Amino acid sequence: MVSPIRFLQGIESLTQNPRMIFLEIGAGRDLTLMTRRVFQDSLQQKSLSLIPPENWDDTDDHYFLHQLGRIWLHGHNLKWKKLYARNQNRKIPLPTYSFQHDSYWPETNVYQTINEIKTNLNTEKRIKITDWGFTFSWERTGITNTELSTVSRRTILIFMDDCGVGCHFDNLLSGKGYDVIKIFKGLDFSPRSKNEFQINPKLADDYNRLLSHLTQFNLLPQKILHLWNITQQSNNNRWDTFVESQYDGYFSMQFIARAIGKQNLTSQFSFFVFNNNLQTINDNERIRLEKSTLLGAIKVIPKEYPNISCRNIDISNSYLTKFNEKDYCRLLHELELENIHQEIAYRGSFRWVKKVIKIPLPKSDLPLIKPGATYLLTGGLGGMGLVLARFIAEHAPVKLLLTGRSFFPLKKDWDPWVQKQGADDSISQKILKLKEIENLGSTVVTIQADCADLNAMETIIKKYRIGIDVIKGIIHAAGIADGKFIQRRDDQDCLKIMLPKIKGLYVLNQLFSFSKLDFVVICSSIASVIPSVGQIAYCAANIFFDNFAVENALGKHVNVKSISWDMWKDVGMGVRTLEELKEQRVAGLFIKHREAAIKKGSLIRKQLKFSNER
Ligand SMILES: NC(=O)c1ccc[n+]([C@@H]2O[C@H](COP(=O)([O-])OP(=O)(O)OC[C@H]3O[C@@H](n4cnc5c(N)ncnc54)[C@H](OP(=O)(O)O)[C@@H]3O)[C@@H](O)[C@H]2O)c1
């Protein structure tokens, strides 16, 4: 060695290139570490060794590839073909999300959007209450076609019913060139033959297995006929049978959508969901209430999965028993019609579509509020509950029973509570509102009870002696907010949202004779008409409410009203949700959608929809 190595000067001269990478090829990491000392923080230089350190607990190959990956990440092109020259490699699709550079947030500023919505709500011209009313109506769209077109080898999937409709469809469609694949209910996923499969409706994974199988054998359909909701049993209006029936309807649709999403299937799927006795065109038809939730799935799934379209086709039992071949063809002709309407009904030779129409609301002078009467408000300590309680108290001195699940101090502790916790505390604020109500001359009783718990509700009825002879009216305002994409939710997530609303209503219906009350007001939401993404269960539960009122009106209990509220301005879960969204950007999609929905819904906004005004 005749002269010094001058390592430092050598590296300094090489680091003139701001994106230089130094590779140490040999055992040890001394040169790598020495080189790093020369790097300037502002420059994007790297020093890597290609031999794994002692503590590397994976294979050498893995380390080598890992380092190559770092070089690539640093922006250097590698000759991948040379690297894999001796291997039989092939490209596979990676899960898209974390590698995709598409932004999923709305282009608009989320906070600005929230503020705009709020400003709109504040400055909007007040519409007269009598103009707030909208309801559903059916429009006849003429006599339908009974000729089916012939196709060449198109796969179609039928979820087979027990009433024989699927068998007729199978014969007709096979005769027209379709390859029909039939899905039956069974204990687990298994093929019964080349084009017959069974799945367990309660197992979400069976839908995945079915779709994987169909994909593997190139049998994925474009059209799917879901007939599991064409049924014969009668409705007993109980929560346990309600839950059981969801697996043939609402959950079945949710599980399929989730399986399509899970398998990244991006081709177009058109669902034709047939059922009986979900819609009423004539006064003599009754609704199978437990099927109502299916409409929630049909409305929300296409919003969360742009490649899925859904249509609901209702047939009535009385026509079903008299069906002939022409009638089956008429139903199948639906497959050839444009997807404009989501809710369709067939009665005889006629096709009907559901529409929202404006109805004038009568001016109310509240004759129903009687001085000295007792009224029960479930969710009475919530945002809307407290406003409605005060509203009643402003019209007459009454007794108000307000229920909720959370702890609430006894009346004797109200003043000490406010003193100790301060007026900003959330319970203190409620106490102050309750005191205002009492100052109007009414008596308030707060009750801690889950309205969906029959035993708990029976106990409070005994404890407070509030039998049907005492209660004159009920407002059902118990509910919890929803917000989860279908892809991330399971059946239990949905039942949690449905519980206070649907089971709560079943319990109230069981404990009180609704026909003997002056009024039963059910707090539904505009989400039943214009649902948002992330709200499939909320939408479904509110549609159940609306149908409950219609069903009661058909049974002549016209005192039962379901009001599909739009978002309340200052109180309640809607305002809280917006506040939460402000905190966490997470629901950008929700906001964007909500904004669009509000624009679209200017027609139907802030309305009272008395579902039984027919
Ligand atoms: N606010 C709106 O803009 C709006 C719009 C359309 C429809 N709605 C509907 O109107 C109803 C009331 O809404 P809100 O805004 O007043 O909501 P909120 O402020 O969250 O009040 C709901 C109340 O329900 C209670 N609750 C929940 N589960 C219950 C159960 N199982 N048993 C008894 N009480 C229960 C909650 O208290 P605990 O947690 O203590 O039980 C809460 O106090 C909801 O059904 C909602 O879907 C609201």
From TrEMBL:
Q: Which GO terms describe its biological process?
A: fatty acid biosynthetic process
Which molecular function GO terms apply here? Answer: fatty acid synthase activity
Q: Which Pfam families match?
A: Beta-ketacyl_N (PF21394), KR (PF08659)
Annotated ranges, domain Ketoreductase: 373-571
Q: Which UniProt keywords apply?
A: Phosphopantetheine, Phosphoprotein
Which residue ranges traverse the bilayer? none
Q: Where does the secretion signal sit in this chain?
A: none
Extract the PANTHER family matched here.
Answer: FATTY ACID SYNTHASE, SI:DKEY-61P9.11
Know the name of this protein? Ketoreductase domain-containing protein
Organism name: Candidatus Magnetoglobus multicellularis str. Araruama
UniProt lineage: Bacteria, Pseudomonadati, Thermodesulfobacteriota, Desulfobacteria, Desulfobacterales
